[in-house]
Design goal:
The chain is an alpha+beta fold and 411 residues long. It has seven helices and seven strands; from the N terminus they run ααααβαββαββαββ.
Length: 411
């Protein structure tokens, strides 16, 4: 009995896209924790300002700044160490001077109360913001756990679970729902990989047997001409079916996992692809040029070679009849490895570019619908392999005809 293959790891998602603006600085992001902190601290600050205003008004009303003293000086001498009171003046002048002195002291007391209260409010506000930040972190810690688990799942491991403990609230319900979703995804992913493994054996074997039988019959020199012609036609059809099966299996594998990761130089991969297509290009009169600079990435060499080979083959096959060329370059741009394949060819409308990456979709027109040019999976495989490596592919029509294909991969 064949053993069940172990569940494979999921590929990382693309992490960089030059068409998107750079993310803001981490400390400037309006996270929920920062917003809750501002909410808690802001509410405390507003409440403190209202309380301080009420205390100040009550104190000012109690001190009754600006009112006259409840007593009068009729005769005698009054001295003060705080106020500079006049001497040798009439009682009315002395009473007025004493009123001013007392009112100044009242105002000074209110000002001192206000300044000390503002300092106390500032200190309490700092404590309130710090306490609010800590409490927001404690309240949102389950969300952080969910986020870390989601990142681990997106990176490589579908077997991870949140398994959140605590009260049966909305956050626990969210975590349990997420765990149920991961369970279903893992089962579906494992079943899909098992199907791909079984299909790989069940589809390849009969096609290989048919090819062998046809080659044996064609090797018979006494076979009639009509039978040999029929055999060649069937052999070509069988070969096309094998290409279709291999393309579908590679597309399924590249969409889900990378078999191994190791340093791979895109320049070497592109050079091997050019060498493999050189004979076909020479037969069609297409010149291949371009400089391949070293661009090392972490990935699977076989799948990356398939990217380069599919792009170069398409560039050669869908080219002009005379004077055509294909340019293949590799380089490092903005910390990412870039493989660019440009070619002359038929004019490609901009609205048709996205359809080229869909399985079995081709550009409308005779130049891209010939059965001898492939099975319509080349660019789909390229996009899937690029995504499995955390990169992406873009296509732009060239002025005058042809395309510019650019594959961007993280180094």
């Amino acid at each position: 009995m064949a053993s069940t293959p172990a569940p494979p790891q999921a590929p990382p998602k693309p992490t960089w896209d030059p068409r998107r603006p750079a993310p803001p600085l981490p400390w400037l992001r309006p996270t929920i924790r920062i917003r809750l902190t501002l909410l808690y601290g802001g509410m405390f600050l507003i409440a403190g300002i209202l309380l301080l205003s009420i205390i100040y008004l009550v104190a000012a009303q109690a001190l009754n700044v600006g009112s006259q003293l409840p007593f009068k000086i009729t005769e005698g001498r009054v001295a003060s160490d705080i106020c500079n009171l006049p001497t040798g003046v009439s009682p009315d002048v002395m009473n007025k001077a004493m009123d001013n002195c007392v009112n100044d002291q009242r105002q000074h007391a209110l000002d001192d109360l206000l300044s000390r209260s503002l300092l106390a409010l500032l200190g309490l506000a700092i404590i309130a913001f710090a306490f609010g930040y800590a409490m927001a972190g404690r309240v949102l810690s389950p969300l952080g756990r969910i986020l870390r688990t989601a990142r681990a799942v997106a990176g490589s491991d579908l077997s991870r679970r949140i398994e959140l403990d605590g009260p049966d609230d909305e956050l626990k319900e969210l975590a349990d729902t997420f765990d149920d979703m991961l369970e279903r995804l893992e089962r579906a992913f494992t079943a899909q990989q098992r199907f791909v493994g079984n299909a790989s054996h069940e589809l390849r074997t009969p096609l290989a047997i048919n090819r062998t039988l046809l080659e044996v019959h064609l090797s018979d020199p006494g076979a009639p001409v009509e039978l040999q012609q029929l055999g060649k036609t069937l052999l070509a059809t069988n070969e096309r079916s094998e290409q279709l099966v291999e393309g579908l299996l590679l597309l399924a594998r590249s969409d889900n996992q990378i078999v191994e990761r190791k340093p791979v130089d895109l320049a070497e991969v592109a050079g091997q692809a050019v060498d493999q297509v050189h004979g076909e290009a020479a037969a069609k009169g297409v010149a291949i040029r371009g400089e391949q600079k070293s661009a090392v990435v972490q990935g699977n060499g076989v799948l990356l070679e398939r990217i380069a080979l599919n792009l170069v083959q398409n560039a050669v096959r869908y080219n002009v009849a005379e004077g055509g060329w294909v340019e293949v370059t590799t380089e490092i741009q903005h910390g990412h490895a870039v493989l660019t394949v440009s070619n002359t060819g038929p004019v490609v409308p901009a609205y048709e570019v996205d359809n080229l990456f869909e399985p079995f979709k081709r550009l409308r027109g005779a130049d891209r619908t010939g059965s001898d040019k492939g099975v319509g999976l080349g660019l789909s495989i390229v996009r899937s392999v690029a995504r499995a490596h955390g990169g992406h592919i873009t296509a732009q029509p060239r002025e005058g005809g042809g395309l510019v294909m650019r594959v961007t991969l993280p180094v």
